[in-house]
Amino acid sequence: MTPTVGVLALQGDVREHLAALGSLDVQAVAVRRPGELDACDGLIIPGGESTTMAKLARIFELLDPLRKRVAAGLPVFGTCAGMIMLADRVLDGAAGQETVGGLDITVRRNAFGRQVDSFEGSLDVAGLDSPVHGVFIRAPWVEQVGPEVEVLASAAGHPVAVRQGPLLATSFHPEVGSDVRLHRMFTELVRG
């Protein structure tokens, strides 16, 4: 059976993730409502703006269902703001900023700097045979990882790609460009 992978479609790089999934053997769907989330075997939380995304998730009554599905073992891939949304702890967050949680990391918002400090670079990612092109846009980095978290890639001395069980997160945007290897790595978690 073909797994269904949702992309949280409240704000951010939804279209780009749907396009990346389109080349893989999954059914890709946009998720805006709890019923759509219920139909998913895996979920991508895209890049965007983490405080806005959390507020919209609350408004669309998705925040608590997301937390329950993550706690129950739903495979989730968070990119940039999605990494922040999966983090258990956030530094430099907005007052009262909420997350989905589940990933035992402390993440620093906008760690690499402002929009003008955005950059691109080549990253070695554990499990991949050649470097990945990383696009960092007002990106977070991981300040601290828990004992169950595997660091897959680092930049500027900080983890920028991590995995914990069925959760995968990057501080960069793998949906930009044509390299779908990280999306494939995630769909393998969904199938596993």
TrEMBL record:
GO molecular function, one term: pyridoxal 5'-phosphate synthase (glutamine hydrolysing) activity
Name of this protein: Pyridoxal 5'-phosphate synthase subunit PdxT
Residue numbers annotated as active site: C80 (nucleophile), H173 (charge relay system), E175 (charge relay system)
The protein's role, per its UniProt record: Catalyzes the hydrolysis of glutamine to glutamate and ammonia as part of the biosynthesis of pyridoxal 5'-phosphate. The resulting ammonia molecule is channeled to the active site of PdxS.
One BP term from GO: pyridoxine metabolic process
Residues where L-glutamine binds: G48, E49, S50, R109, I137, R138
Pathway participation: Cofactor biosynthesis; pyridoxal 5'-phosphate biosynthesis
Gene: pdxT
Short name of one Pfam family: SNO
